[in-house]
Amino acid sequence: MSLKSLFIFTTDAFMSIGMKRNFNLKHNNKKIIMTLTKSKHLPAILFSLAMVVPVTAQATIVEVRTVLGNFEVNLFDEATPETVENFLSYVNSGSYANNVVHRTEASFVMQAGGFTYNNVFPPTPIQTGAAVINEPVFSNVRGTIAMAKLGGNINSATSQWFINVNNNAANLDVQNGGFTVFGQVLGNGMEIVDAITSTPNFNFGGAFTSIPLRNYTSADQNANTEPTDNNVILMTDIVVINAEVVTNSNLNPARNTLLDTGTDNNENDDNSTSSGGSLGTFLVSLMAIFVLRRRLLKA
Fold first, then answer.
1. Sign of the CA dihedral 54, 58, 61, 66?
2. pLDDT at 17
């Protein structure tokens, strides 16, 4: 049950009890205890509190299935809710089925999410939805997944994503408003990613200036041999395998500490209030509710 549903669900329960109750709430793994007292205004208080608690996406772990092997990714759905919701919309619609890894850069990134292979080369761009707001909470270190976006446009990410195969924090944490890290590869999954990035890549122009191809050579390219499904690195699908709100709570992703939040970047300022990981904003909202409660009890 989401936190918002939990607060609304408990409204009638508190109304039927004629004494003070302690209510324990965990937010971003930090325990918060609040005392609620029977009052005719309690439903309004609880509803207000529910509005400030972020509604997290109901999916945490996805499996990326490729022709070179599968790997799992833990999504940071509490800290980057908008990005996770956007990513899962493509997952659930099947947009990532038969998607290709269209870019690899040695010791940098593996990028996918933008093109589908339909037995024709070059691959076909997928249909994308609205761009998602930037949420540069975490650092672009090795093993993290982040959203790709247009140069000079902070809030332009749609379907394309990349996995950092190196520690790219010094560059990607600050470039273009910072790139949103929204998950982390689990277990030995980076062995699959490394195998993909070790595959020779070729320049076919456009979005495919460094596309990795298996069983393909420079001689094949010079002979104008068209790559097939035996050559491209296909992601057969990305599927949700664990839809719990909180999983792998032992993960401790590095935060983005390089981004200058003091710049006149209004997009980033707005983003700081939309992130589900902002405990400070949450506590301020709690304080306001406590003040309201005390006034109501004196009335």
1. negative
2. 38
Q: Rounded to an integer, what distance in angstroms lies between the CA atom of residue 154 and that of residue 164?
A: 19
Asked if 228 and 234 count as a contact pair (C-beta separation under 8 A), the reply is no
Q: Which domains does the chain have, with CATH numbers?
A: 3-54+277-298 (no CATH), 61-274 (2.40.100.10)
Question: Is residue 122 reached through a cis peptide bond, with omega within 30 degrees of 0 on the bond before it?
Answer: yes
Written as six digits, the tokens of 78 are: 């509490």
User: Which tokens is 5 given?
Assistant: 């549903």
What angle, rounded to 10 degrees, do the helices at 279-298 and 42-52 form? 170
Claim: this prediction has a pTM higher than 0.90: no
- Higher-pLDDT residue of 273 and 33 is 33
More confident residue, 238 or 285: 238
Q: What type of residue is 27?
A: H
Predicted confidence at residue 20, as pLDDT, reads 45
